[in-house]
Structure formats: C-alpha cells, structure tokens
Design brief:
Strand content: 25-35%
Number of strands: 14
Order of helices and strands: HHEHEEEEHHEHHHEEEEEEEHEH
Helix content: 25-40%
Structural class: alpha+beta
Strand order of the largest sheet: 2-3-4-6-5
Amino acid sequence: MQEQFNRHISKNIQNFYRKRLICPILYLLFTLALFQIFPVLSVISPAKLTHISNMEQQSQKNQVYVSATLSHLKFTGYTKSRFHRVIGYYYYMENKEKRECSIILLTPNACEQGLPEIETLTVYGKILSVDASFTSLLEHLSDDLNWTDSGIQSKVTPYYLSEPDFRYGFGIFLFLLLAGSALYAGLQILFFLSFILRPDFSPPCRKLGHFGKPKELLAQAEKELATLPQLATEDMFITERFFIETSKYGIAIVPIEEIIWIYKHSTLHKLFWRHFNISYTLNITANKHVYIQCPKNIKSDIDGIIDYLSEANHAILVGFSEENRQKIHAMQKSWHFRKKRAAK
C-alpha cells in the first residue's frame, strides 16, 4: 500500500498537466502555420518593391504587401467596382527594357478620380495574381488595341499591384489575433511544464497557500496518503488531516479542519430523449473561499466520503438547504452562494 501511494498526488498532478499540454502545443503549431500561410508579417512591415517587374518574385516569397514608387503611369480608361461603387482605377506602367507593361490599380483618391497620366506616385499595395477582373481588363484592352488575347498576355505581367486591397487595419487585427493566440498558448505550455517539474507550483497546491505553506502541506498530505489512507474510493481519499481528489477532472487537496460545508448533487445524463445514467458531484466549501467540486462519482462513494468527513469534523454543515446556504453566506460574506439552487 505504501509503495502504491508513494508520491501519488504529485504523480497525478504531473500526469494531469502532461495531458493538458497537448492542446496548447497543437494550437501553437496551428497558429505558426497560419503565420506561414497568410502574409501577416508582410502587411505589418511591407517590403520595398524596387522594380515593378519583380512582383512575381515577391509573391513567391509570400511578401505580397509592398511599398513602391511608380513613375509614368497611364490610365487605361477602365475602373474596378465592388457593390456598385468604384474602388479603383486601372493604370499601366511600361518597362521598355523588358518590352512589357504592368498593371496597377489605384484608389480614387490616389489618382484624383482617374488622371490621364501620373508622373510619380508612392503607394502601398498588395500583389495579386491573375483573377477574373484582371482577365476581363485584358480582354477589353486587346479589343481596344486590336490585339489578340495571347498577344496582350505576352506583354502584360501576370501579376498586378492593387492599392485598394492593401488592408492595413485588417492586417494589424489578424497579426494581433494570431500573435496573442500564440503568446497565450506559449504561456500555457510554460506554466504546464512548470507544474510538471514542480507540482507544488500547480493551482491545486496554490490553494493550499490559504492554509499554510503549500510545499509543506503537500509533503504532509503525500506522507499521510503513502502511510495509509483512512478511506479510499477510486479517485477520492481521506487521510488523518486531508481530503484528496486525484481524478481526470482535476486534483484537489484540502485540510479536513478547514472544510465548512459538504453536499452532493445529481446530474441526469441523456442522449436525445433517452436517459442512460445518473452521476453525482461532491461539493466542498472550505474557509478562505475555497470551493471544490468532484464530478461524475457514484452515490455510494460520495455518501461514504460525506459520512466520514462529518464524523471527522463535527463543525461541517452537511447537505444542501437554504438554512445552510445562509449560514455559509454569513460566514464567507461571498456572492458565490447568492444564486445556488437546491440540489438533490
């Protein structure tokens, strides 16, 4: 028996937080993957596009949000609308060295509602690949110039720069959301690792700080449990001085002398219209506003725990009633009991 319960509480705390590590690790990996998939960092710090012909290379690097200084822009005569509102004006910029031209979509304010020519302009934009609106533009331009579709496509780069699609506010929001999520997951991982390495730092042991030094009380509880528990169920134990729970739903340690109220309530589990079982939850209230719930137990186990604790500490109030609730409320001066309902 002594070997079976040696460091039983610490081992269960470690196992509990090892299992809880899985979710934040997976979420952190998922968040990092989103950073790679979406060009979040690119919108926070746009790359400098030195040559408009380098749009394809920038897009392949996932640096689609860029700043660029453009010159000798000429209006194509076509605009882009969204929800019956003009959001941009299509301009083209020639590259005489490569004998090609690039398309730029400017906001109405940037081009003053469609200036015929713009000498120099610095813009922040998003590099976009061929889409329906771009293809439609080329078709109209080929008709205007009496070119074939293949002929104009050979002269125009397959990427274009869109100023209206540079959504800086949304990029900031997405960055903060992903960065905050990654930070939260990372902090959870660090906390859980610290609880695994030092079980006395974990929340169940920190609650013991209301009644003394957590490390010393944990050691005392471990010693009493390893010696011989006075009452034991599958995951609840009573030693000389402590009530202990080590279930998959959580870990709890509380000195028996600090317990002031115990009661149970039942939960009816059903699938659709069919009831298939009833489980019972042990509720424990201790001094210093410590509240413990031990869910999904069988009635005989909880009844045995309640009987033993009430015998070990005659000051404990047993059972849920309005009278007991009022007494505990007067003792604790807490809102915790204001909305409690009667339990069976």
